[in-house]
Design goal:
This protein has nine helices and seven strands; from the N terminus they run H-H-H-E-H-E-H-E-E-H-E-H-H-E-H-E. The protein has 237 residues and is of the alpha/beta class. It has a single domain, classed as Rossmann fold (3-Layer(aba) Sandwich), CATH 3.40.50. The structure holds S-adenosylmethionine. The site of S-adenosylmethionine (SAM) has 22 residues, from helix 1, helix 4 and strand 2.
């Protein structure tokens, strides 16, 4: 965990650049829309692994309030500047410092793969959600494309590449079945687990645009090639 924290402290200053340009905006816009679609407007949201507050910025407004938690002090400092009206805590998802039945919604984007005890975290998320509260996650899924990612990231670390997310962090990627089991074991109902994303921000521009055009088809007809998993569940009333 210390290693992940140090990595994100190191890249905090450049993290937003990735999503400022056209490819990044399209990539992040796509996943944040998927997550947003699983939420109802109005209420208090917790973003786990909130990073620089990109999702919270999108969520705020129309009566929505948000709290963010992240292990990286550097990422949290940026989030506080981006969304001064929200509360941000430096802390780990594996020890959520909130009372039971506090939140109307909990989200996590691109952070869940770092968790070493996902079962315990999901149970704790269930505890802090109010009855009727919603969970919406987007994390890397296990498939033929992502199976090579850990080796590439390990190589990147050896080559001392200072790129966002690149390093040997013992990340966990999930199949639909594993994610479904995780959520249902914690008590969540009305589950939906589906794959999304085919165009990745790190692809060269022409390839990214081709992949972006193919994305709806891949998600609909060849989901095994889409590399993120979007999962939703509700804590029953
Ligand atoms: C790829 S970034 C995603 C940030 C943000 N959710 C976004 O969508 O831009 C992953 C984030 O997860 C955070 N993170 C990793 N492990 C964590 C943990 N155990 N608890 C809280 N945050 C964690 C990292 O510090 C980093 O900010």
């Amino acid at each position: 965990m210390k290693k992940v924290q140090q990595h994100y402290d190191e890249v905090a200053a450049i993290y937003d650049q990735r999503y400022d340009r056209e490819k990044g905006r399209q990539y992040y816009g796509h996943i944040s829309r998927q997550v947003m679609a699983g939420l109802t407007q109005g209420g208090l949201l917790l973003d786990i692994g909130c990073g620089t507050g990109l999702f919270i910025e999108r969520y705020l407004g129309s009566g929505n309030e948000a709290v963010g938690i992240d292990i990286s002090r550097g990422m949290i400092a940026r989030a506080r500047t981006r969304c001064p009206e929200s509360e941000f805590l430096v802390g780990t998802a594996e020890l959520l410092p909130f009372q039971a039945n506090t939140f109307d919604a909990v989200v996590s984007l691109l952070a869940f793969s770092y968790l070493q005890h996902p079962e315990a975290v999901i149970k704790d998320v269930y505890r802090i959600l109010r009855p009727g509260g919603k969970l919406a996650l987007c994390t890397l899924g296990k498939n033929v494309l992502t199976s090579v990612v850990p080796a590439l990231y390990w190589l990147g670390e050896k080559m001392e590449l200072r790129k966002i997310g690149v390093g040997d962090f013992d990340e966990r990627y999930y199949t639909e079945e594993e994610m479904h089991h995780l959520l249902s074991s914690a008590g969540f109902t009305e589950l939906s687990v589906k794959r999304c994303s085919f165009a990745h921000v790190s692809l060269a521009k022409p390839i990214f645009h081709i992949a972006k055009k193919m994305e709806p088809f891949v998600e609909e007809r060849m989901p095994y090639l889409a590399y993120n998993l979007c999962a939703n569940g509700i804590k029953p009333e």
